[in-house]
Write a structure and sequence with these properties.
The protein is mostly helical. The chain is 76% helix and 7% strand.
Length: 147
């Protein structure tokens, strides 16, 4: 009876420990990754340039508007400029969204690549972890900037 009980407990213990293998958790600092990813700077510059272009266009058109003399000319001018500015703003928003999506996708892919290479099962943002985890931030930055 004792022997059977010991064998049963041993089997349960071995089965339980095999089923509950410890996962390796990785953490990364998203803000640090964004701050050190070279593509973020170039994308940010491109987005800023597009916004500055819209602002310059608006200022130029404002100067032209002031030169108009009749109310009808001004009204037509306002309508045309409003459409043009709207198109430029839509293009700006599309560019901004595209760049943000590209960066987000690149970061996710780099995190996944580093996790697989380092045999890490789960990766979370560092700010949600109070203690523990393998910090892969620098490896993610290196992977991103080497692309």
């Amino acid at each position: 009876m004792k022997k059977t009980l010991c064998c049963t407990l041993l089997a349960l213990t071995l089965g339980f420990s095999a089923a509950v293998q410890a996962e390796t958790m990785g953490v990364f600092d998203f803000d640090k990754v964004v701050d050190n990813y070279s593509k973020v700077k170039t994308s940010s510059d491109e987005i800023s340039d597009k916004l500055a272009e819209i602002q310059r266009y608006s200022l130029d058109k404002e100067r032209e508007y002031k030169k108009l003399s009749t109310p009808l000319e001004r009204k037509n001018f306002e309508e045309n400029i409003a459409r043009e500015i709207s198109k430029k703003q839509e293009a700006y928003l599309r560019l901004k969204e595209k760049k943000e999506n590209e960066i987000d996708t690149a970061i996710k892919n780099a995190v996944k690549q580093v996790a697989i290479a380092n045999k890490i099962d789960t990766v979370v943002e560092k700010s949600v972890v109070f203690f523990g985890g393998v910090d892969i931030t620098d490896k993610v930055i290196k992977a991103l900037n080497s692309q």
